[in-house]
């Protein structure tokens, strides 16, 4: 009976597949080589699909976290792609939703299965503008949980490089040398109580007399300038702008990079005392600032460009007793601030801006304290996917305005690895009749090791997760 049950489940309900390409990286990995950065120690994957071998002669990988170029690559073993468990009956009762992953059959070969993310639904018109998805003239915004699932790591302070050099920082941005090898810095010339240990920032409380009109004690996130990831030339970005580079795409030359201003900051915070804490997110045209007032009845205020838009919003009751997970997002041109996954304010829609006009001298994230004690752990900064518009001649399905019309029984799909994805920008839209199912679990991510001159592909339990 058990064998019959498993046969039924495997045949009609759930099927396992292996991802063979990197078009959904870093969400889903195809064949890859796993690198441990020789400077900061972070582990990252570099794609090694067939056809990419000629560039392995360069024998070095660039760390997407610290920019180190001293990571040997040529002699590393190839690990197979992620194992994916797919629910075959997911769309027998409903249609796919936007931002959902789907598995479908090829239009010309029913045996070829592909996984992509749904962006356009039947009957819609899709455009790609400044890396964002425009649906019927409106920007398609992702909820916070989807942002979290799709975001691409820019920096984690848990892994700091041993090298303290920051030669590409402008003199105006250089801070006191309290943590020279961190992207988080105190402000130059300011008196500070911040202690910036690796992955753990602590700011002691002020004396009671300083709780009123004293200055805020700030730390700023200052991205590193680094060599262009995937570039065939060893050039370094002159500015500290965050670009749409992928640590995965280092076996193919990148034709063009784009500045990305839509970011997500995740960290765990602990506060105490009766002062104030400020969280600031800035881009070329907007400065969104959340002030946590811990005195008397704790409340929060959201100000945009110095003008309060939400006032006297109650803070969670445990704000001064428990550690809380904090998320600050400017993804999809909206400002979100959340504690433990729950937004504190309604999303604030930010006006359009041109990504390439970024103010390179500003910090995308800043945190300031006055009076209170604040501890920040596990600070990580992510960026949104920048969907590229392909050159003329490649985007075969678009019209002269660069838009795509989705048929009544079709879906418009894109890969998370936008620079290297054969998706609806190039191939026809996906017919609903070609859907196979919805990915459920990345159940068999592999790690390759060489032991006694033999390669062993071991299950990487740390990367087993729900497919989102």
Question: Can you tell me about this structure?
Answer:
With 468 residues, this protein is mainly β. 4% of the residues lie in helices and 37% in strands. The chain has a domain at 152-383: Jelly Rolls. The protein has helices at residues 2-13, 144-150, and strands at 14-18, 32-36, 43-47, 60-61, 71-72, 83-87, 101-105, 113-120, 125-129, 132-135, 138-139, 152-156, 184-186, 194-197, 200-203, 217-221, 263-272, 276-282, 287-293, 299-304, 307-314, 324-329, 334-339, 342-343, 348-349, 365-370, 373-383, 403-405, 410-414, 430-431, 435-444, 446-451, 454-459, 465-466. A hairpin with a 2-residue loop joins strand 10 and strand 11. The model is unreliable at 166-177, 227-238 and 354-360 (pLDDT under 50).
Radius of gyration: 23 Å
Q: What proportion of the residues is helical, as a percent range?
A: under 10%
Count all strands and give the number: 34
Looking at the overall shape, the CATH architecture of the domain at 152-383 is: Sandwich
The CATH topology of the domain at 152-383 corresponds to Jelly Rolls
Beta-sheet strand percentage?
Answer: 35-45%
Major sheet details: 9 strands, antiparallel
N-to-C CA distance: 33 Å
Which structural class fits the helix and strand makeup? mainly beta
Which residues sit in consecutive blocks of at least 5 with pLDDT less than 50?
166-177, 227-238, 354-360
Oligomer state equals single chain
The global form is globular
């Amino acid at each position: 009976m058990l064998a019959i049950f498993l046969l039924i489940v495997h045949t009609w309900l759930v099927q396992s597949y292996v991802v063979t390409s990197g078009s959904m990286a870093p969400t889903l990995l195809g064949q890859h080589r796993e690198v441990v950065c020789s400077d900061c120690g972070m582990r990252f994957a570099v794609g090694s699909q067939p056809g990419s071998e000629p560039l392995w002669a360069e024998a070095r990988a660039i760390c997407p976290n610290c920019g180190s170029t001293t990571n040997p690559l040529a002699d590393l073993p190839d690990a197979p792609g992620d194992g994916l468990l797919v629910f075959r009956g997911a769309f027998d009762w409903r249609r796919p939703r936007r931002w959902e992953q789907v598995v479908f059959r090829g239009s010309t070969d029913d045996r070829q299965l592909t996984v992509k993310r749904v962006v356009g639904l039947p009957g819609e018109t899709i455009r790609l503008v400044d890396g964002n998805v425009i649906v019927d003239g409106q920007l398609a915004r992702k909820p916070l949980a989807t942002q979290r699932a799709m975001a691409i790591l820019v920096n984690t302070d848990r892994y700091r490089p041993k090298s303290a050099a920051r030669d590409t920082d402008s003199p105006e941005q250089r801070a006191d040398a309290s943590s020279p090898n961190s992207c988080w810095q105190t402000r130059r010339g300011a008196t500070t109580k911040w202690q910036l240990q690796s992955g753990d920032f602590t700011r002691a409380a002020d004396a009671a007399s300083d709780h009123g009109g004293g200055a805020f004690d700030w730390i700023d996130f200052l991205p590193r300038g680094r060599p262009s990831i995937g570039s065939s030339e060893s050039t370094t970005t002159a500015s500290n702008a965050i670009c749409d580079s992928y640590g995965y795409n280092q076996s193919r030359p990148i034709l063009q990079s784009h500045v990305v201003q839509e970011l997500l900051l995740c960290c765990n915070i602990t506060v105490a005392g009766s002062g104030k804490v400020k969280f600031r997110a800035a881009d070329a045209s907007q400065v969104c600032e959340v002030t946590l007032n811990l005195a008397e009845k704790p409340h929060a205020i959201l100000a945009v460009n110095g003008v309060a838009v939400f006032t006297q919003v109650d803070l969670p009751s445990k704000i001064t007793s428990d550690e809380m997970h904090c998320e600050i997002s400017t993804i999809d041109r909206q400002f979100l601030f959340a504690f433990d996954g729950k937004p504190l304010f309604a999303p604030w829609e930010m006006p359009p801006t041109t990504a390439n006009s970024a103010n390179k001298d500003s910090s995308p994230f800043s945190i300031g304290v006055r009076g209170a004690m604040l501890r920040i752990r596990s600070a990580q900064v992510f960026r949104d996917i920048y969907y590229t518009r392909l050159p003329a001649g490649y985007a075969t399905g678009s019209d002269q305005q660069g838009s795509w019309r989705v048929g009544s029984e079709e879906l418009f799909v894109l890969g998370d690895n936008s620079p290297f994805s054969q998706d609806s920008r190039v191939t026809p839209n996906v017919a609903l009749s070609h859907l196979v199912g919805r990915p459920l679990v990345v159940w068999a991510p592999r790690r390759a090791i060489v032991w006694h001159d033999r390669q062993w592909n071991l299950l990487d339990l740390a990367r087993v997760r729900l497919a989102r």
